Request: fold
Amino acid sequence: MVALVLVGHSPELLRGLRAMLAQAAPGVPVGVAGGTDVGALGTSAPRILHAVRSALADAPDGAIVLLDLGSAALALEMALDDLAPAERARVRVSRGALVEGAVRAAVEAAGGASLGGVLAASETPPGRDKLPDDWPADGAAPPTVPGAPAGRLER
Amino acid sequence: MSGALVAAWLHLAASRIAAERMHLTDLDAAIGDGDHGINLDRGFAALAVRLGAGDGPTEGAGPLLAFAGRTISGTVGGASGALYGRALQRAAAAVEVGPDTAGTTVARIAAALRAAVDGIAALGRSRPGEKTMLDALVPAVAALEAAAVAGARLSDALARMADAADAGALATTPLVATKGRASYLGERSIGHLDPGAASSALLLRALADVASGA
Reply:
């Protein structure tokens, strides 16, 4: 089994995402390192290091790290520097989008995919199948269906 | 370099950053995301509290710098936390390398600062002229190395270092930022002092003032 490590600036954001992953792919170990050591928004190299080490201990096949923003990469690099070579060899860092990448990766990991397979799943471009094919490419709202009775969400 | 000097520096740095917190944040609000002073103050205040409570090592320049590096990298958040954390970590390693009797104190501090600055440049993939902390730090380490070669006394050498850092920080004002959040502004970053260069100069001035007893 491959584990995931979620790295980001907001503890709440990552807690919510972890809950989604637990539902989509129960049994996949998910570590989180969100916020600073004193609970503020930001990243913490020591927390990231701890989360990666814990994930590696839980997952013999290695761990995929996903970031919320590129600015988390500096703290991540510091943390990865502290790993032993044998630990570093079992870590892959994803360029994928955090939410969609993590969900795809977790589903793939639950299916028993390899480290490379989970990484590839996490890096699938998020835009590709997010919306139905017949929605406008320019981001406009989809056209209403002619003749269909108009329902009302609000009364 | 003695542990007492490092401890005194870290405490003075924490109080100077607390005093300059809004100034640094205002500089960052102009060209970044407006949290530099708040972030640094959070980290250095946590460091001062932990040192005061005896959570860190009580002596030894290397262990103190390493503890400071871990604390700063874990509490500041953002790029500046990682960069200053890495700097302190590298300074700690440089201090640990030689026996305490090797070279003058000025030369040993210069070697530690060189290691710290190289660590920031490598992690940040940056060099001077890009409107960053390096614009204060690189001239400062050069001035300190020159002072070491010239055989300057500790307080004089560190004063020259801090002067060079101040001048380097001021010289960031006309530069275009190409690194970090400020780079989103491009040419609109011209005319603003870089907050990272300002905080770097502040930290080095605190070191000079500790050494001169000011």
